[in-house]
Amino acid sequence: MTDLTRLELLRRAALGGAALSIPGFLAACGGDDGETAGTTTGESAALASTLRFSNWQLYIDRDAKKKSPSLEQFTAKSGVKVNYVEDVNDNATYFGKIQGPLSQGRGIDRDIIVMTDNSRFPGLLVSKKWVEPLDKERMPNISNLIDAQMSPPFDPDRTYSVPWLSGITGLATNVKASGGRIVTTMQQLLEDPKLKGKVTLLTEVADTMSPIMLENGDDPSKVTDESWNKAYDRIQKAVDAGQIRRFTGNDYVADLERGNIAAALSWSGDVATGLAANKALRWNLPEQGSDIWTDNMFIPLDGSVPTASEYMNFYLDPKVAAMVAVGTGYISPVKGVKDEAVKLDPESANNPLIFPDDEILSNVVQFDSAALNNQTYIEQWQQLLGA
Amino acid sequence: MTLIHRHRWLAPLFLLAPGLAWLAIFFLVPLGFLAYQSLQSGTFEQGYTFTWQFSNYKDAITGYDEQLVRSFVYAGIATVATLLISYPLVYWIAFHGGRWKNMLLLLIVAPFFVTYLIRTLAWQNILADQGPVVGFLRDIHVLSADGRLLATTFAVVSGITYNFLPFMALPLYVSLEQIDARLLEAAQDLYASKTKAFLRVTLPLSAPGIVAGTLLTFIPAAGDFINAQLLGTPKQYMIGNVIQSKFLELIDYPAAAALSFVLMALIMVALLVYARVVGTEKLTG
Q: Which residues have a Cβ under 8 Å from the Cβ of A383 and sit 6 or more positions away?
């Protein structure tokens, strides 16, 4: 099964959706181009004309024309256009950017933002009341969430959030830049002299610390000062030796593609799907394991609750969730996605990154959430990042 | 009108008022607020309170002395480099540019029509490991087979030099352009060699431009963080990177504010020393 066929399928699916809802389609064509959340007339009076959506790079299904079939389907169905912006590079930087207006009770011109549960920020957004509660009346599909995603610690009743996708942190190699070697352990990444200056780690503390702690024989889900220091010292040593080129967010993608870096800590779907065209790239789970995380959608203050809730409900439909999961190579939080994915692309059902098997699941852990909020660790980490 | 007629001394105040108001609102008030913040304590989660926390300053200096020193070294090298590059350039334009003068000046400023960030990102491509520049330097063995330019001190200092070149070149041009060519003729009539005429006449007369250019380059360069961020590694990070991450990522306002003040104070000291060495009259020409 080639990519083309899959894309064609997705495109047809999008067209089908558009044909089913002609009024919606017309509304989409006639809507205004402004980014402000004006309202449309008619029965969907409460919906804004545009959904403003902030997400990470390589995190939505794209067809050959770089359009997203699932978002187009949403527009066709609801009449709401989507202004989809890939402006989240890492959690801390994005949070830093939005916390100014939010702390003054102002909106950020977004209806949906996406932040990861292995950072302290989802918890902060909820505790500071910087997010709007979902309109559950519009969201019957929320019952489609898999059990494991029903009650995360930062939002036990899913009052404010809906999971987007989950993923695993691993090792990406550009074999052209690495001289043919494929990196499969953290030791190689941090110490192989042949990779000196051509390695990036992630600014996300959980994603970088977890695989190192696992290799040290420590448990990242129960961080102690000892295990923290042991892993921290290993990174510090690699930084001092000039092994580490940079700490990155999603921006590792550009350097990896160009071959400026040979190996990178990387998120599972990026290389498997988003960068699949580049044949020099490989992705591996570190031999001693790594961490698994989930990104979550929130409605920031002043975002249009009906519009965002409508979209989230649309997303929680297994058919749509399957399009996104297959298109991005990440793990869906929605029940029944596998059956739908088989229809879209039978091969994807065998992709262990989208539907992780027991072997992978036994090798990944969730990072200790208490450690994420430890002030000493936070400051030490920032110092390691070079500032 | 009559008020001004009766109290003539009020006139300059009226003229100064917009400038003073602007300074007060956009400089003094934020500066005061920053000073207030720099003496707070607490955490982002619990909020910050004003407690005369002078230790913020001590922590700022002891924790980030490395980045502070690096900022001044990088800014210093870049300033000297911009001077060495732009002096011959604008000298030629001022004395030999003829009717092309304006065109040539425009060329110096032209890169500024593109935003700072994009200009610096372009250097990422130019200096890329698999790019043509590095390829060529490897071929002629200036760089070793796996040597690189991007993510090095050289890239960061070059980036700063490139980005601040016009700030040096334009004031230099103004002071060189104003030099009366007859003075040089007079020097030669008095048997000064070309070198001597340059050293005794041209150079001293262009000193105000050198001083102005140095200040305009050095001060923003010392606080720059874009070049280190995009062209360097954590080992090249400057104090601007620390302040940026403290403000926007750690959201540790007191530490960031204290660091900003430390940076300002150090720049002030550097300027006072500089003014002492070159003499303040050079600043005003």
A: B63
Mean pLDDT of A146-172: 96
User: What is the percent of chain B where pLDDT is above 70?
Assistant: 96
Domains A3-166+294-354 and A168-292+361-384 share a fold: yes
Q: What is the CATH number of the domain that holds B248?
A: 1.10.3720.10
Residue A17 has what pLDDT?
42
Domain count, chain B: 1
3-state secondary structure A97-166: HHHHHHHCCCCCCCCEEEEECCCCHHHHHHHCCCECCCCHHHCHHHHHECHHHCCCCCCCCCCCEEEEEE
Average pLDDT for B249-268: 93
> What is the distance between the alpha carbons of residues A333 and A152, in angstroms, rounded to a whole number?
12
CATH fold of A168-292+361-384, please?
D-Maltodextrin-Binding Protein; domain 2 (3.40.190)
Identify whether B31 is part of a domain: no
Give tens-digit pLDDT for B92-110.
999 998 899 999 999 999 9
Q: At what angle do helices B203-222 and B65-96 cross, to 10 degrees?
A: 140
Domain segments of chain A: what residues?
3-166+294-354, 168-292+361-384
Among A302, A348, A6, A332, which Cα is nearest to A167's?
A332
What does the pLDDT read at residue A387? 57
For residue B109, list its beta bridge partners.
Answer: none
- Flag whether pLDDT at A22 surpasses 70: no
pTM: predicted TM-score of the whole model, two decimal places: 0.84
Q: What is the pLDDT of residue A28?
A: 40
H/E segment holding residue B132: helix B132-139
Contacts of A387 in chain B (CB under 8 A): 67, 234, 237, 241-242, 244-246
Q: What is the CATH number of domain A3-166+294-354?
A: 3.40.190.10
Q: How confident is residue B6, by pLDDT bands cut at 50, 70 and 90? A: confident
- When scoring A103, A130, A176, A260 by the number of chain B Cβ atoms within 10 A, the one with the most, hence best to mutate, is A260
How far apart are the C-alpha atoms of A312 and A135, rounded to whole Å?
A: 10
| Cβ-nearest to B248 among A93, A196, A386 | A93
Residue B58: Cβ within 10 Å count? 11
What is the tens place of the pLDDT at every residue in B210-223?
Answer: 999 999 999 999 99
Q: Look at strands A81-88 and A199-202 and give their pairing.
A: unpaired
Amino acid code (one letter) for A77: K
Indicate the burial class of A357 (C-beta count within 10 angstroms; 0-12, 13-18, 19 or more). Answer: exposed
Which residues fall within 8 angstroms of residue B208, CB to CB, at 6 or more apart? B171, B175, B282, B283, B284, B285
The mean pLDDT value of chain B amounts to 91
**Residues of chain A whose C-beta is under 8 A from some C-beta in B?**
92-93, 95-97, 99, 124, 127, 177, 196-198, 239, 242, 244-247, 258-260, 373, 375, 378-379, 382-387
Domain hosting residue B231, numbered range: 63-284
pLDDT computed for residue A45 by the predictor:
58
Of the candidates B204, B206, B188, B186, the one whose C-alpha atom is nearest the C-alpha of residue B90 is B206
